[in-house]
# Entry
Amino acid sequence: MELLHHDLTERIIGIYHDVYTELGYGFLERLYKQAMVIAMTESGLSVAQRVAFDVRFHGRLLGDFYADIVVQNLVLVEIKAASMIHPKGEAQALNYLRASSFEVALILNFGPTREFKRRVLTNDRKVPLASRQR
# Structure
């Protein structure tokens, strides 16, 4: 079974390994985000930062969230710089998928050990939240 957006996610993960190799760990999360944006853009990918989404409940705006990076308008990328990917980070990525029309998220951690997770939530499995990308 072919993974959803497999070629693109593999390309992003390859770029993550390159950035990790060059920078290592110990920098602030925002620096890794910027490095990933630079590296992905240089490799020819379309990248948007801090993409805003509204989250609604019963038709009313609850608030919003900002995805770190969206690549090719297909994959959400969350950057972490922690000792490990915590369950809270995974839940955050899944909620971002739930509240948007995106179906694939990558969590890339620039901690002491290289670690990434791929999460998928297809639109046909989502309970509508009436969320919209701004």
Notes: The helical segments are 6-23, 29-42, 87-98. The domain at 6-123 is CATH 3.40.1350 (Trna Endonuclease; Chain: A, domain 1).
